[in-house]
Write a structure and sequence with these properties.
This protein starts with 5 loop residues before the first helix and ends in a 7-residue tail after the last helix. The chain has helices spanning 6-9, 41-57, 64-71, 79-90, 105-119, 128-137. By secondary structure, it is mostly helical. It is globular, with a radius of gyration of 14 Å. The protein is built from 6 helices and no strands.
């Protein structure tokens, strides 16, 4: 049996770094030195989706390229490859504006694509029900 990825062990599918902010559902101090650890996968999904909501509503980011350049900056990531991978999963071009207002489901699809990039196919073990719960905890109403 394969060992779960770090993101899945931490209930943090987006591998969100620890910062001064304490997330709802975050375990303190947590078992990982660098990344947040959440009490459930739904809370980890919530944190990822809340971050994407903030990127769009506060920072006016609407394309995969804009969002991933902030999420995974080039100083520590191959951001171009990350953008390409997420775009492939979503079926969109890097600079095509995503329809967050018209279709809040986009947040869920984008979060799942990020989780897949961060954890590989192991991210598929996160159920759609858990993603939906995370989205609802983040304040979104989505259908699965």
């Amino acid at each position: 049996m394969q060992m779960p990825t770090r993101g899945l062990r931490n209930n943090n599918p987006g591998n969100i770094d620890k910062t001064g902010e304490v997330w709802e559902g975050q375990e303190l101090p947590g078992s990982d030195e660098r990344f947040c650890t959440f009490s459930s996968m739904a809370y980890g999904c919530r944190a990822l989706i809340r971050t994407l909501l903030t990127y769009h509503t506060k920072h006016d980011l609407s394309t995969v390229r804009e969002i991933i350049n902030r999420w995974a900056p080039p100083v520590e990531n191959n951001t171009d490859a990350y953008v390409d991978h997420v775009c492939l999963r979503l079926g969109v071009a890097p600079d095509h504006p995503l329809d967050f207002e018209g279709n809040p489901q986009v947040y869920l699809h984008l979060a799942r694509a990020i989780a897949f990039h961060e954890n590989g196919s192991a991210a598929d073990s996160i159920s759609l029900g858990t993603w939906k719960e995370g989205a609802e905890l983040a304040g979104l109403k989505v259908a699965v």
